Amino acid sequence: MSNEISVLPLPGPCDGWLLVTSDTRKPLGAWPIVAYRADHPAGPWSGPQLILDPPENDATRYAYNPTFLHLAGDSYLLACNVNGLLAEVLADSMICRPRFRLVRLSTQPAADS
């Protein structure tokens, strides 16, 4: 888990809580953004469940500090920062900036198979 987390209540019939963070068990530059679920804000938490494997992640660039905001219904806004090697950032200032994505999550219980 990274030093940036979002904890928010799940809307709808699946009451519970969602914790969103970077999965730092992988090397820097390969951190996927994941979610954990709990019935209570203090846990215990289950997961992780992949939300996004940021396309910006590569050998020298990385996404970090994800923030997750509920918009309405099953729509959420995922914001994360992207950074890279100093030489790359100095050559292209557009690397080091936040990225935003609309994410839709199902809050319905999974059907038994």
Write up this protein:
The protein is mainly β. The chain has one domain. It contains 1 helix and 7 strands, in the order ββββββαβ. A 4-stranded antiparallel beta sheet has the order 1-2-3-4, with no helix packed on it. The termini are far apart. The C terminus is likely disordered.
Brief digest:
By secondary structure, the protein is mainly beta. The protein has one helix and seven strands, in the order E-E-E-E-E-E-H-E. Strands 1-2-3-4 form a four-stranded antiparallel sheet, with no helix packed on it. A three-stranded antiparallel sheet has the order 5-6-7.
What labels would you give this structure?
7 strands; mainly beta; 5% helix; three-stranded antiparallel sheet; four-stranded antiparallel sheet; 47% strand; 113 residues
Helix-strand blueprint:
Blueprint: E1 6-9, E2 17-22, E3 33-38, E4 46-52, E5 61-72, E6 75-84, H1 86-91, E7 97-104
Antiparallel strand pairs: 1-2, 2-3, 3-4, 5-6, 6-7
**Spatial strand sequence of the major β-sheet:** 1-2-3-4
**Largest β-sheet summary:** 4 strands, antiparallel
The helix tally amounts to: 1
Strand fraction equals over 45%
Mean model confidence by pLDDT: 86
Gross geometry: elongated
How far apart, in Å, are the first and last alpha carbons? Answer: 31 Å
User: Any low-confidence stretches, pLDDT <50, length ≥5?
Assistant: 109-113
Secondary structure class reads mainly beta
In helices, the fraction of residues equals under 10%
Rounded to the nearest angstrom, the radius of gyration is 15 Å
How many distinct folded domains?
1
